[in-house]
Amino acid sequence: MAEYYLLSKLLMKKVIISFFLVVSFVNLYSQKITGTVYDNATKEPIPEVSVYLNNTTYNTQTNSKGEFELSFDKEIVTDLVISRVGYNMISIPHPYDGIPEKIFLTSKSTLDEIIFEVPRNGLSRREMLKMFKTEFLGNSHTAQSCKIQNEDDIELFFDYKNYRLTARSENPIVITNQYLGYVIKFELIDFYAQYDSRYHPRKMIITATEGKASFNDLNNENNKKINKRRKEIYNESRNFFFKNLANKTLYGRFAIASTSKPYYHHRPSAQPIDSLFIIKDTLAVKKISLTNYGCHDIRPASNQNLVSGRIHIADRYSNSSYLTFISDSFFVDKYGNAFVIDGNGFVVNHLIFSGFLGGLRMGDTLPQNYEP
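User: That's the sequence. What structure does it adopt?
Assistant: Structure tokens below.
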């Protein structure tokens, strides 16, 4: 009996110690952002406000008292977005450094009624919607599985003088991506697609999309298949390229070369990473700087949007891309998210892709916190 009692005490101690270890582990890796959202005019709390870390699966909503608690396990270089229909969206950079305890949203002003006129022999809404989905979602097999659930919320206009398609939506665009198993809510800030007038409007010259996105998993019946698909898409993504560049593990996955060097898609003449970049560890991210040679082969005379360098990229699937640098250095986190921080501490878009990686759209996008 005494032996049984002693054994029970030892087991109880072990359970208690294990419990505290688990609690400590959770506290170490689980973090949260809290706050309360109010109407700026009435000072009343606002329920059902969307709160999320941009382009991630970390999201929540305010309760009836306007309070929210957003939990996440790892810090990602992105904005905290606070949004509700009828109010101006707030985007807070560096939310991990602390946010205001009280956050006030301002109501959107009443907009003048906009009438979209379709000239004679012009494009129908159906045609414009098809053009929009091609440039917004993409035309890959992954994008083809995407469905916009609220197409009627999207307002479209084609400027026949400048051959430009623009779009806007007061409500978040809700996208179901069956192939990758996500539901995406995309808050469109700006969209346009510029076409070549000579082919009116069949040839797209450039497209630009700006917005904030929140990801949620679908109720996936076959998680194994979905996970395999996500990994396949990730292996052809910008994040996968940057992660391997930062870790110097490009060999066998990507070949890179300065655009001043001969380059053949089927048999790339790759250059060593160290001849193009200097890579240093800086806390949780890696700083990558262009060398004084190698990438620095394009320098326009204009001081505006000075190009620091350009490289040619080929992956193991023979996809070819170009990466243009507007800055001499950038950072890459553990997920492969690459970013440039300007003199004011803001993240700016100074890494510009063209070719295959530049053609990836929302339908080919994984959340920034995705890990295979």
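The chain has three domains: 27-105, 125-217, 237-355.
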